[in-house]
Amino acid sequence: MPRLVRRAGAAAALLLLAACALDTYPNTTFAPHTEFGRAIDDLWRLLLHLGTAVFLFVEGLLVVALIKFRHRPGAPDPEPVHGNTTLELLWTIIPVIILACIAVPTVKTIFQTQARASADALQVEVYGHQWWWEFRYPQYHVVTAGELYLPIGRKVNFTLRTADVLHSFWIPQMGGKRDVISNHVNYLWFTPDSTLSAAAWNGTCNEYCGASHGNMKFRVFTVPRADFARWAAHQARPAVYPDTSGARAGSDSAYAFPAAQMPDNAIPHTPLPPAETFATGLAGDPAAGLKTYSASACIGCHTIAGNPMSMGIIGPNLTHIASRRTIGAGLYPNDGLHLEYWIKNAHAMKPGVAMVVLGKGEIDPVTGKPAPTGTLTDQQIADIVAYLQQLQ
Amino acid sequence: MATLAAPTLIAPTAYGETGIWSWIATTDHKRIGTLYLFTALAFMLVGGAEAEIIRTQLHAPNQHLVSAELYNQIFTMHGTTMIFLVVMPLSSAFFNMLIPLQIGARDVAFPRLNAFSYWVYLFGALFITLPIFFGAGPNGGWFGYAPLTTTAYSPGLNIDVWVIGLQILGISSLAAGFNFITTIINMRAPGMNLMRMPMFTWMSFVVQFLIVLAFPVITVALVFLLLDRFFGTNFYTIAAGADPLLWQHLFWIFGHPEVYILVLPAFGLVSEVLPTFSRKPLFGYPVMVYSGILIGMLGFGVWAHHMFAVGMGPIADSFFSITTMLIAVPTGVKIFNWIFTLWGGQIRFTTAACFAIGLVAMFTIGGISGVMHSSPPADLQQTDTYFVVAHFHYVLFGGSLMGLFAGIYYYFPKFTGRLLDEKLGMWHFWLNLIGSNLTFFPMHYSGMLGMPRRVYTYDAGQGWDTFNLLSTIGAYIVGAATLILVYNILTSRRSGKIAGNNPWEAATLEWSISSPPPPYNFATIPTVTSRYPLWDGASTARIDGPVPSASELGIPMPYSTAKPAVAALAIVGMFGGLLLTRGATQWPGYVLLFGSAALLVGSLYAWLTSPLEPEHAH
Fold first, then answer.
1. Does residue B243 have a pLDDT over 60?
2. ipTM of the complex model
3. pLDDT band of B283, cuts 50, 70, 90
4. Is A72 near chain B, with CB under 8 Å?
5. Could you report the per-residue pLDDT of A211-252, keeping only the tens digit for each?
6. Is the Cβ of B558 closer than 8 Å to some Cβ of chain A?
7. Which residues of chain A from 178 to 197 reach within 8 Å of chain B, CB to CB?
C-alpha cells in the first residue's frame, strides 16, 4: 500500500512537472510528441547521462588535484613524474568504449529516421521563402501559408524545398530540423502521437536567411483526423465573395483551429511599430474592399482562389486568410488592426519584407522617403481588410 | 631553481629605438609580436562591444536597440572579429614572441615576411571592420552560406567587404604559416631535437600545417564567390543550377581545422603554464605531442558534422559522426594529462595558472557538448540553436581565450620586463570565469528549449526570457573583466613589478635570457640537452649592467625596413580599388586598383633586391 501511494505520488509529481514544463517552455525538445522526436530523445538521454558522468568525473578529479596538491610553503619539490603508460592507455581506451556505446545507437537511429516514409503517409510540400513558409497538400489540393495542420496519429512526410536561399524547418516538439536547400529536395517524416488532443505548436526557421530570419515562424496545429478532413476539404474550395452559393464559407462543414484554444505562446506579442498610426473607428466595406483589392498592387503577388483577378504567386496564398490565426509568418495576430497596419506599411512591420508599402503618404523605412507605391487611404485599407476577413 | 638576486635586476628598457617609425619598419619578431598583441586586444574590445550589443538586444523579448539589418551585421562581425581578428592574431602574437626564443633562434626564418604578415593583418582587419559604421558591414553570418551571399540575395557592398576582407586576412595567415614552419624546421638550436621542443612550439608547429592546408580551401571558396559577385560567373548561382552545398563543403573543410587553429595554440600555452606552476614536468610529453598531431589530422576528416541537418544521407552522416567521436579521444587524453601534470605537484595559484586550469575545466564542458553534437539525430535538435552557441563559446571562450589569457599573464613579464598586477589579475580571472559561465551555460537551456541562433529578437512567452536575461548579465560581467585586463596591461607596462629573467622559475629556454630579451635574443646560441634545460642545470644569463648591443657582440641583425608594410598597404589598396569599382563611377576604383598594383610591384622589387642584413650586403 505505501508503495502504491509512493508510485501514485511520483506519477502525480511527474505529471505536474510535465504540465508545468509544457506551459513554461512551449518549444522544449525534452517532451517529444512523435516517434521521430522520441528516437532522438532516447539518444539525447544517453548522451546527457554519459556526458554528466564524464563531467562529474573529470571536474571532480581536477578539483581533488587542486585541493590536494596546492602549494604548501616549505614543502619539498615534487617528484618529476614524466608519465605513466598504464594510466595513459586507460584514459585512451575507456573513452573509446564510452564512445562506442554512443556510436552504435547513433548509427541505428540514423538509418531508422532516414528510411523512406510509408507510401500512405500524408504528403506535405514545404517551400521556404524569404521570410515565410508555404505548405501544400497535393493529396487534398490545398495551398496555404504560415500554418500547418496535421492529423493526429497519421504519418506525415514533408518534401522540403526553397524558393530562394537556405532555410531550416523545425518544430521542436515534433523532432529534429531539416535544412531546406536550393536545387535540392529534402525529406522529413514523423507521426504526431495518437494520444495528442487538438493543440498548437511553434515552428521556426533555423538557418540564417537574411534580414527577417528571426521573423520566419509558423504555427502547427495537430487536430483530430475528422477535423483535419473538414479543414482540408474547406481549404480546397475557392473563397468566393460575395458568396452566392447559399452555403456560406465558415458553415458547419468548415474547420479551423479555434482561436479560443490558442495558447498564449502561440499568439504573437510583437509590438506595433511606434511610428505607425491608423485612423480609428473606420468601418470597412467588404464589397468596396473587393473592388480596391482587385484593382491594386495586391493581385500582382497574391492568389485568392475565387477571385479571378488575384493570381500572383510571389506572396502567400490568401484564399482562406480569415481562417488563419497569424499573419506575417507568425509575427502578428490575424486581426483587423494588424492587417490594417500590415497593408499600410509592411516595411515598417517586418524588416526586409518583399511586400510593398501601400499606405498613402507613408514613409518607406528602407529609403526614408515617401513610398511611390503608397496609394491607399486608411478607409480603402479598412475596406480591403473587411474583404479579407470574409475569406473564411 | 635559484631565484635571481635582487641587485642583478635592472629596470627594463624594451627596445633600443623608439618612435612610431621604429615600429612601422621593425623586423624584430618580438616587436612584431607586440604589435599583434596590442592590435588583437584592440579588436577584442571591438568584438566585445558587438557581443554586448547582441546581449543587450536579447536581454528581453521584442527589443529593438538595433534594427534587424544592423543586428545581422553585428553578429556576423562578432564572429568574424573574434575568430580572424582576435583569437588567431593573439595566437600569432605568441608564435612571434615565443617560437624563436623557445627553439633558441635569433629571429624567424623570414623577418621581413613576418612584418608583412602583420601589416596585411592590420590593414585587412580595418578593411573588414570599418564598413559597419557606414551600414555596409558584412551581414551573411561568419560562414556566409551561399546562395544568401550571392548578388541575387545580397546585392549590397556588405558581402563584397567580407569576401575581400577574408581574402586579405588569408594572405597574412598563409605567409606567417610558411614562415613559422621554416623557422621551426631549420632554426632550432643545437640539441633541440623535435622531442625536446617545448609544447607551445609543438602545437604551433601543428597549427601552421593546418593553416597552410586549410586556408587554400577557403581561398578557393572565396575566389569563386568573388568571381560570381564581380565578374558574373555561376559557381553559386542558383538560377544557373549551382549546388549551394559546394560552398558548405569547401567552407567547412577549412572551417573545422580552423577550430583547431584557434584552440591548439591555447593548448600549447597551457602545457607551458601548468608544469611551471605545479613544478612538475608535463605528464606524458610524447602522448601530448602525438595527440596534438592526431587532432590536427583528424580535424580534416570531420567537416561535415557541421552539416548534419543538410540531408547528406545516412552513410555520410554515420561516417562523419564516427570520425567526430574519434577526435574526442586525443582531446580527452590531453585533458587527463593536464590533470595528472597537476597531480602530485606543488600548485601555485598565480593568475596564469588559474586561467590555465580554467581552460581545462571549461574546455571539458565544450568537449562534452561537442560529443553530444557528434550524434547526428541528436544534433538535429541542437544545430543552429543556442545550444550550439553555448558549445562553441565553451570551446573558444572557455578554451582558446582562457588559454591565451593564461599566456598573457605568464609571458607579459618576459616581453615587457614587468609583471602584470596579480590582484587585478585575480579579479579578471574570477569575474571572467563567473561571467562566462553565466553567459554561456544558460544558452544550453535556451537552445534545447527551442531558441534558434542568429535571431535579432524573439517573442514573449516562449520560455526563453530568464535564460536570456542571465546570459546578458553574464556578458556584462565578462565585459567588466575584460576592462580590468586592459587596465592591468596599460598600467603594469609602465609601473608593474620588475620581473627579472625568470619570475616563475620556469624551465624552458626563453626564461634563460633577460626580460625583455635583447634584440638578438641569445648572445650565444645555447646547446640544448633536455626538455627542461633550466630545471636540469642550465643557468640563466646573469645581467650585471646594460645589455650589450648586437654590434658590440658582432651579431648581424636584419635591417629595419618599411617595404613589407608598403607592400601590405598596396595589396589592401588593390582590393579596395576592386570594391570601389562597384560604385556608380568606376574610374576611381580602377585608378586605386592599378595604382596600388604598381606600388605592390615596386615595393616587392625594392624588398627583394635589398639585403636582409649587413652580412648579405656583399
1. yes
2. 0.92
3. very high
4. yes
5. 999 999 999 999 999 999 999 999 999 998 887 765 554 456
6. no
7. 178-179, 181-184, 186-187
CA distance A92 to chain B (A): 6
Q: Chain A 127-156, CB below 8 Å of chain B: which residues?
A: 130
- Is residue A175 a contact partner of residue A158, using CB atoms and an 8 Å limit? no
- The answer to whether the Cα torsion of B166, B172, B175, B179 is positive or negative is negative
Checking A6-10 for CB contacts under 8 A at 24+ apart, the result is: none
- Mean of pLDDT values over B566-594: 94
Residue B216 in contact with partner chain A when CB distance is under 8 A: no
In Å, what is the CA distance from B242 to each residue of A278, B55, B141, B234, B309?
Answer: 45, 37, 21, 7, 20
Average per-residue pLDDT for chain B: 93
Band of pLDDT at residue B14, cut at 50, 70 and 90 = very low
- Predicted confidence at residue A252, as pLDDT, reads 61
Q: Do B461 and A265 touch (CB under 8 A)?
A: yes
In chain B, residues 498-527 whose CB comes closer than 8 Å to chain A: none
- What phi, psi does A133 have (nearest 5°)? -110, 135
**Residues pairing with A353 in the sheet:** none
Nearest CA in chain A to B141: A208
**Binning pLDDT at 50, 70 and 90, where does residue B544 land?**
low
Q: What is the Cα B499 distance to its own chain's centre?
A: 26
The contacts of residue B616 (CB under 8 Å, 6+ apart) are none
* CA–CA distance, B415 with B409 (Å, rounded to integer): 11
CB-based contacts of A206, cutoff 8 Å, min separation 6: A167, A168, A169, A170, A177, B309, B383, B384, B385, B452, B453
| Res. B75: pLDDT tops 90 | yes
Of the partner residues A40, A183, A208, the one whose CB lies closest to the CB of residue B141: A208
The pLDDT value recorded for residue A11 is 59
Note the helical H segments in A200-274. Answer: 225-236
B68 contact A CB<8A: yes
What whole-number distance in Å separates Cα of residue B22 and Cα of residue B150?
43
Whether A34 contacts A193, CB under 8 Å:
yes
Q: pLDDT band for B588, please (50, 70, 90 cuts).
A: very high
Distance from CA of A195 to the nearest CA of B (A): 22
Residue entry with cell 518534401: A159
Instruction: Record the cell numbers describing residue A140, joined without a space.
Output: 487534398
Q: Could you say which of A111, A179, A265 has the minimum Cβ distance to residue B309? A: A179
B554 touches chain A (CB under 8 A): no
- pLDDT for B563 beyond 90: yes
Q: Mind telling me how many Å the CA of A114 is from chain B's nearest CA?
A: 7
Establish if B357 touches chain A: CB-CB under 8 angstroms.
Answer: yes
Chain A: residue nearest B366 by CA? A55
A57 touches chain B (CB under 8 A): no
Residue B16 is predicted with a pLDDT of 54
Q: What ranges in B312-350 are assigned the alpha helix state H? A: 314-342
Contacts of B424 (CB under 8 A, 6+ apart): B484, B487, B488
How near does any CA of chain B get to the CA of A284, in Å?
30
The predicted-structure confidence for B333-342, as pLDDT tens digits, reads as follows 999 999 999 9
Which of B148, B238, B450 is facing A183, going by the closest CB pair? B238
The per-residue pLDDT for range A74-101, each reduced to its tens digit, is 888 898 888 999 999 999 999 999 999 9
